[in-house]
Every structure is written in structure tokens, then in C-alpha cells.
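Justification of resources, computational component.

The compute hours requested in this renewal are based largely on the per-chain cost of generating structure records like the one below. Each record pairs the submitted sequence with a full C-alpha cell output. That output is archived, and it is also reused by downstream analysis tasks.
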Amino acid sequence: MSQESLRVNYTERISRFQSAADHHSRLMNWLSIVRLLSLVAIVWFIVLAVKLENPLFYAGSGAMLMLFLFLVKRFNFQKDLRNLNLRIRDLNQKELSCLGHDFREYPDGSEFANPGHAWSHDLDIFGRGSLYQYLNRTSTLRGKALLADALTTEPPDPEAIRSRQQEIADLKERIDFRQTFTARGEMFRESERDLPGIEKWLSTEAYITRRKWLFYVALFSSTMAILIITYAILVPGGGSLLLPLLLFNFAMLSPFFARTNQYQQSISKKHEVLEGYALLLKLIAGTPFENTDLKARAEKAKDGMREVAKLSKLLNIFDHRLNMLLGVIFNGLFLFDFIMLHLLERWKRKNHNKILDWIRISGQTDAMISLSGFAWNHPDFILPRVEVEQEAMELSGLGHPLIRPDKRVDNDLSIEKEQVVIITGANMAGKSTFLRALGINTVLAYTGCPVCATKFSMGFMGLFSSMRTADSLADDESYFLAEIKKLQRIVSRMEEGQPLLILLDEVLKGTNTTDKKRGSVGLIKRSLPYPVKCFIATHDLSLGELEKELPGKVVNYCFESYIRDLKLDFDYTMRKGIATNMNASFLMKQMGIMD
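The structure output for this chain reads:
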């Protein structure tokens, strides 16, 4: 599928889901009219029953009440479907914008930014215009966190990469499932306090577990309440028997009232978010996946969707005690608190070790949907080949995925046993962009996504970069010291002996030229005994001499700049060799800074 086909597909889906939403809106209008008529009929039948003293009209009023409740349920059902279709329509409108590289509406993951991370700060993984913002389609808090984790964690082995690739291959074609899942996730409100609240509830124990007899007292009181109410209907004045029962029930509740309130605080008003997760699990369970891992997840989701929905209903009922009138009636007649605590604790005992796993299943699926959507939107990208103990690196048509295709310049690179690639060139010629393109595509490879290249073959290795370092006033740390510390971390990681891809942009920028060269050469020679691929972008052309000193270990590549008709020009194409043109003095003359 081409980019143009994707645009047509999204445009058709916008029209399709708008039409579906309009259809459900029309049904809602008709249901509203019929619902109003049924309400009028209820009142009219009651009036006739009183006026004509005919009990059949009471039966008619009851039938109309049942119809009214049915219509309310159908109205809410149609409203849910209308809102779902409108959400999916909006998702397709956003996808159209994203195809044009306008993805500002998506969350940028800035809360996950960590300047001390091995690569995420240098490669623009988080923040405005970042990779996270570009591919993020998550709708759950757990999904957002797991997506951030996928972009900042090295997989344990190439098999983990291939496993993710297979999941993405299965999910990317299921656009209806992906968008329905995302829309459903957006339709329930989840706060940062919800999951910690559920975790706290799981770790607490209600007093009812050590005083089971309270539940049996509640059953006795409920039975007595039903019998007394029935008696009161049949015998005038029988309702007076409720008073002793009410006094007894409130006397039983009063010693435990504060503890019940404390128990409820950790789980109160969580039924909406749990109902949302139950719907997500239902979507997962009802999808016929082909991938083994997704099938296993769907199998677990089958139990989860029922049990989480059950918990949601129990909590919804339990929250009725917060209503002063209902709380007094339910507790006064049935010892409602004891019954609900017993049912909730019984659910907890059965599912204590499963519920967080069910929520994680939803989050994992949410994160994988983002990665699958990225794969779907980039049919021209290819799956990388990452193998253990492969020394050669073959990159063809490598580009930066966040640069618009019409502006992006792709590059090729082929190295065998060489360990250090020195990239020279003028300012703005493309050195840093190439390093970031290599780094960000490596991160995409880690996640199982296709990469922006026509060929991407490399050995399985870790990733570390030092490209963007800043002062830290809070730590009383200069730019230079911050860079030294990061280089120290790279050397420590390198000395672990595992294959490592190192990306360095202008090493030791905070010192003089002589010291800078000495440090750069020392770092290069220090890396040679280890299984690394080290890319160093630099303005220092003298570093290129290392290719002759260390043949087969060091190789030179460069980006050139050109002055044509008194204008500075770049082709952003990487080629072998050392750069011959620099542009700082020319730019300064052009801007009148120097003669």
C-alpha cells in the first residue's frame, strides 16, 4: 500500500464512521420520542386506574414502565455506539494529518524524558516533535508507560526483536481492531490515581475476612427485612416492626463505619475505569489472532473480561452507599456494608494475583497497537536484519523517519570489520542528522518496527550515545564535566565486553583543540579491543589520519558543503573519505561578522 492509498483509505474511513454516527444519532432521536410517549402513557394509565378504579390500568402502567426502562437501555446503547464511531472518525482524521507529518495533537511523552538515559535525550525519543509523539496512539496510562519502556530498553536478544516483529505483522492489518481499541480506551477516564488505588486495595484486608459472622448476620437481617416488608403490605400497621430491625442494624454497623469508609476510599469510583478495561479485554478476547503470543494474551483476556466486569459492577453497587438516602435505606434494612465487603473480598481472594496482569495485557496491546500503526503507515519501510556475532553493517537508503520524505536525503554505509567510523564535514552538512538517523532506526529495530531504509543489516548490539550534553546548575556541574561523566559511562559499558553501538558528536567540545584531539584519539584507541561500532562526527580533519595508522580498524566518511554563486549549498550525501570544505569563515563573511 502506497502513501496515496493510505490517504484514500483514511478518507473513506472518515466518511464511513461519520455515516455510522449519523445513523445512531437518528435512532437516538426516535428512541427519545418513543421514550417520552411511554412516560406519558405511564402517567395516563395511573390516572385512569385511579379515576376508573380499574386495577388493569395499573398493570398497563407497569408494562409501560418496563418499556420505558428498555428504551432507556437501548438509547444508552445507541449513544455509546455513536460516540465510538465519532471517536474512530477523529482517529482517522488525525492519521491523515500524521501522514503529512503533522502529529502535534498526540501526547509527546515528555513525562518520560530522562537526560541521563543512554540514548533517549540525544535521539529525541521524547518531547515535542519526538519519535514517541510521532508513533504514539496509546489510550491507557499503562500503555503509554509500556510504549516509553519499549523505546528506551534494549531487547535481551534478536529473538525478542523477531517476536515483536511477528506481533506487529499480525496487528498492523487489523485496523478496525486497532482503532476500536484506541477509541474505547479514550472513552473511559483514567487518572494517575486509579491503578495505585487498586493496588492499595489489593494489599489491604477488610475486617469482614476475620469476622465472617457479620456476613451471616447481614443475611439474617436481610431475610427479616424482606419478611417484615411483605407482612406490612398484607397487614396494615405491620411496618412498625421495621423500627427494631433498623435500630439493631445501625447498632451493628456503628463500630465498623469508620473502617468501612477507609476501605472504600482506596477503591471508590473505580468502577468506570474497570468497566473500560473490561471492554478492552473483551475486544482482545474476541479477536482471532494468528500470532502465538497474541493468542495467549487473548486466552487470558477471556477470564479477565468477565471478572473485571464483575468487579466493576460490585464497585458500582458499593458506591451507592455514598448516596445519603440510599446508604441509610440499604444499611438500615439489609446491612449493605457487610454484604458488599464480603462479596468484594471474595472477588479479591479469587483474582488477587490476576487483575494487575489483566490490566497489563491491555497495556501491552495498547503499546503494540502504536507500533503496529507505525508499521501500517510506513509500507515503504523495511524490517531490519539483526543477528548475533555479525561484524558487518550494511545500510542502504538510511534516512531519518521524522523528516518529511520530500525533504529527507537517504544515505548508504557499508563496513565489515571496521570498528570506528570517523565522519567529518562542515557545520549543517548532515553529520549529526546521520548519527540520529542511525540511532533512531536502531531504536525502531529494537521495538520490532520497520526502519527507514531499503536495507538495514547489523549485528545485535547495545546502544549508547553522547551527542547533546547540558550544564547542570542544580548539581553544580559544567558542560565539560557532564560530557566527561557520560564518556565515562560509555567506557564502563564498553568494558563489559558486550557488542555496543556508540554514537558521538564532536567529542570534548568544552576544551582546546590540542586537548580535544588527544582525548578523541585516546577514546578511539581505548575502544578497539572491544566489540564496538563507534561513530564519531567531528570537525577535526586530523582525526581522519587514523585510517592510515589503524587500517581495517578505522574508516573515514564525510559530508561536503559547496559554495556556488556565492551561496552555501549542501547535498547531505555521505561519501567515503575526509571532508575538504568548511563553511564557518564563509558564513561569517556573508553575515558581516568578519572581513
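DSSP finds 20 helices and ten strands in the chain. Confidence is low (pLDDT under 50) at residues 470-476.
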